[in-house]
Sequence to fold (312 residues):
Amino acid sequence: MATTVRDETTQMSPGLTTARSPFIEAAREHGELYIEQPYDLYNAENHDAWRQLFARMSDRWQRYANPRFLQGVETLCLDPNAVPRLEDVNKFMAPRTGFKAKAVSGYVPAFLFFDSLRKREFPTTITIRDAERLDYLPEPDIFHDIAGHVPMHTDPAFADALARFGEVAQTAVEIVKRIKDPAEQVRRTTSIMKAMARFFWFTVEFGLMRAPDGNGVKAYGSGLLSSYGELPHSVESPLVQRYPIQLEWVINQYFEIDHYQPLLFIVESFEHLFEQVGVLEEWMKQGRLDNVSPGEPGLSEIDVRSFIDASA
Ligand SMILES: [Fe+2]
Fold:
C-alpha cells in the first residue's frame, strides 16, 4: 500500500533521484505500478536539478521548439524553480484535452502504455536525474516526461493523434487474437509491435515539424525537447538527415537510443500526424506490418506478452 511505503521511507529523506529512490524501490517490490507522487520526498538537490534543467532549456525551446509546445509550457504554468506537482499539471491540462499525467513506479509494459494513451492517461516518471549528471540519462525522468512530453498534450490536435495511436494498440490486439498458432502469434505480434515502437519513436519521441512559415523545421518530439544538446543538433546539424515522413521507411527503420539520432522525419502538422496514425492502422489490418525489418528496438518478452495476454 502506498501509504505504508511512504511512512517507511520518509524518515530517511532520500529524495526521488533516478536509480536512487527507496520509495520507488519499495513500490516496485510491492508490485505497485501506479502510485501517488510523494511530493514531500523531493529534496533540495532534486528541486535544484529541475531548476537547472528548466533554466538552460528555456532559450533553446524559444528557438527550436514548435509554437504549440511553447504555448503548452505556458498553459501548464510550470514553476521554473521546483519539481512540478502532477496534480497542478493536470489541473491545467485536463480541461483542455482530457489528458492526465499519472505517476508510475517504473517501466509500463507496451500494451498497458499504449492503452493508457487511448484513455488519455500518460504514465509519468516521478524521479528526477542526478544534478551532477544533467545530460546523461538512459531512462525517462520527470523532466523528460513533464517538460518534454506533457506540454504537447495540451494541444488538441496532438492529443487526438496520441489517443488515436492508443486505439491502434487495440486493433493490434484484435488481430493477434485471431492467430491460432502460438509461435506465429509471437512472431507477428513482435513485428507489429516493432512497427508501432518505431512509429512512436520517430514521431512522439523524435519528431520534427515543418515550421509554420515554411522555413526550416521545429521540434515536437519529447526526446529532443528534453535534451539540451540534441535539440539544436536535431534542427541545425548537417550531420542529421531530415526527410518528410514516409511510413514505409519509418516502420522498417531501426534506431539506437545511446547517441544523437542521425535520421529524423518531418510532419507537416499534427493533423498530418493524425492521418499517418490512421494509415498505420490500415496497414496493420492489411498485414503490412507483419514482416518489418529486424533490428532495433529489441522487444522484451514482457512487452510481447502484454499484447498477447490482452487478446486472451
Ligand atoms: Fe518519452
Summary: The pocket of fe (ii) ion is lined by residues 140, 144, 149, 205, 222-223 (CB under 6 Å).
